Amino acid sequence: MIILKIYVKIGLVINLDIRDILDNFEFKGDFVSCKEFGSGHINRTYIAEYDCEKYVVQCVNGSVFKNIDELMENVFAVTRYLRKQIKANGGNPDRETLHYIKTKDGDKYYRCADGSFYRAYVFVSNSVSYDSADTPELFGASGVAFGRFQRMLGGFDSTKLFDTIPNFHNTLYRYQNEFLPALKADKANRACTCKAEIDFVNARSDEMDRLYKLVEEGKIPLRVTHNDTKLNNVMFDSETNECVCVIDLDTVMPGIALFDFADAIRFGANTAAEDEQDLSKVSIDLDYFKAYSKGFLSEAGETLNQYEKDNLAFSAKLITLECGMRFLTDYLNGDTYFKTEYPEHNLVRAKCQFALVADMERKMDEMERIIKSTC
Ligand code: ADP
Ligand code: GN1
Ligand code: MG
């Protein structure tokens, strides 16, 4: 009776059809409940509770990820490799990597009649993710997690991975091929509402190709990178707060290692939320910057070359500019990419990123000093 009540209650809030989707996966036990969960901007995530185990089920955003087969190939290949590494180091692969559940037909994902895709994995038990870190230590622990992820994948041949979103962190490409065309088209008639932000981006176009130029010159290698190192993409042990597992592997691709440092700083070392409207609250917290640098470099430091080390602080600014530009592009396009909660949400996010860029520019010398002393 209780089970039925919970199901009916939650079923009314989300969508009863989710049960039809869940029934296609090899889950253990009887269904208890299912609810929408998480704060990601792209996919839709559900927690499905069965009496034996909890699962995470995700509807993958097909307009962002155009080739689901290649995406899942990447995720499975990287996870298989990580499991071996963790096992060899005496760790527990079932807790420290994602554990995917195939469909009853043995496929890596389930394709619905409406063309959407679902995939499932075991919920990492006794774990929690955070949208902000209460202490620099907690944030530093996420640096250890992403640094270790980078180090453990050091031996994985990045050319074996598909480029699931080409030019994902190619800032100049995003400027020339996405931002400027969106501005020109001005589909949603919004350019007149964000002149200052457009000027902010244009004024920094000269810096956008600095890192890819180093790649072209053979000074920075392409490595296996996560590319979306937000704090909420690490699971922490709910009792000890130690990092358990890096999740959200959809953007694992060949990339520049610096961005795995940088995107975490953009999100987690901001004294405000990513969509804070009061820009006086936005700044880069140098204690958090230092803590993440220490954590990340303690694991990945030895694998980075001098060109990479010299550009760590700059990369934090560049990715913040890039992310703000992506939010602004989506605002100009009429909000077609990121999930939004209100009409100006993308503009608010962009303004917040640009305020953070401005603060990083003010504090760049200090950020450089911190990196030097940590390296
Ligand atoms: P998105 O691409 O939308 O960011 P994520 O894969 O990051 O999706 O998942 C969203 C949230 O769901 C995460 O921040 C985390 O809280 C939770 N989550 C995802 N995978 C797991 C898992 N295997 N175990 C426990 N929680 C998870
Ligand atoms: C998106 O899915 P989520 O919320 O982890 C985006 C990232 C952005 C981030 C900004 C595939 O990440 O690139 O940095 O929003 N993911 C994709 O919060 O575009
Ligand atoms: Mg995520």
Brief summary:
The chain has 375 residues and is of the alpha+beta class. The protein contains 13 helices and 11 strands. The protein has helices at 2-13, 18-22, 68-88, 93-96, 136-152, 171-185, 195-202, 210-216, 258-268, 286-300, 306-310, 312-333, 345-374; strands at residues 31-37, 44-50, 54-60, 100-101, 110-111, 117-122, 127-128, 223-225, 234-237, 243-246, 253-255.
Word description of this protein:
The chain has 13 helices and eleven strands. The chain has helices at residues 2-13, 18-22, 68-88, 93-96, 136-152, 171-185, 195-202, 210-216, 258-268, 286-300, 306-310, 312-333, 345-374, and strands at residues 31-37, 44-50, 54-60, 100-101, 110-111, 117-122, 127-128, 223-225, 234-237, 243-246, 253-255. Strands 1, 2, 3, 4, 5 and 6 form a six-stranded antiparallel β-sheet that branches. Helix 5 (136-152) runs antiparallel to helix 9 (258-268), helix 9 packs antiparallel against helix 10 and helix 12 runs antiparallel to helix 13. The longest helix is centred in the C-terminal third of the chain and has 30 residues, at 345-374. Adenosine-5'-diphosphate is lined by residues 37-38, 40, 42-43, 45, 56, 98, 121, 123-124, 127, 129, 232-233, 235, 247-248.
Mean pLDDT comes to: 94
What characterizes the major β-sheet?
6 strands, antiparallel
Tell me roughly what share of residues is in helical segments: 40-55%
Shape label: globular
Quaternary structure annotation: single chain
Radius of gyration: 21 Å
Flag low-confidence runs.
Answer: 1-16
Distinct small molecules: adenosine-5'-diphosphate, 2-acetamido-2-deoxy-1-O-phosphono-alpha-D-glucopyranose, magnesium ion
Order of helices and strands: HHEEEHHEEEEHHHHEEEEHHHHH
Structural class: alpha+beta
> What is the CA–CA distance across the termini?
60 Å
- Residues in β-strands, percent: 5-15%
Number of strands: 11
- H/I helix tally: 13
